[in-house]
Recover the amino acids of this structure.
């Protein structure tokens, strides 16, 4: 939606997304700086959330109780902070691609080990 192009912060809760929905959402919100996903899940196998937004200004991503096996940050050049809270998988949830501005990563796992 056109209204989304003016947003600087967006929080989404209890939603299900397809494979490329998040990347498309970030790309369509040209001013978006902060995105929080809370209790959301992916519907497409293999449940890997891929974020490839080389032209976005997104600076902060928060994933709170997100139902996916992994998050691939392919190209997010302005990203400064990533938070993964209440991660269920026993595998490390994040794979980092091009994130040259990244300064802070917070990982919180219910699996208790990686």
């Amino acid at each position: 939606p056109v209204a989304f192009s003016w947003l600087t912060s967006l929080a989404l809760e209890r939603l299900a997304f397809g494979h490329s929905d998040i990347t498309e959402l970030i790309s369509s919100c040209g001013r978006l700086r902060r995105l929080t996903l809370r209790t959301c899940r992916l519907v497409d196998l293999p449940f890997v959330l891929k974020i490839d937004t080389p032209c976005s200004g997104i600076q902060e991503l928060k994933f709170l109780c997100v139902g996916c096996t992994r998050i691939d940050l392919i190209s997010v050049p302005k990203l400064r902070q990533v938070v993964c809270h209440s991660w269920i998988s026993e595998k490390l949830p994040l794979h980092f691609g091009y994130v040259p501005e990244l300064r802070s990563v917070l990982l919180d796992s219910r699996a208790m080990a990686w």
Remarks:
- The CA atoms of residues 19 and 34 lie 20 Å apart.
- The beta strands are 9-13, 16-17, 34-38, 41-42, 48-52, 60-64, 70-75, 81-87, 94-98, 104-109.
- The chain has one domain: 2-109.
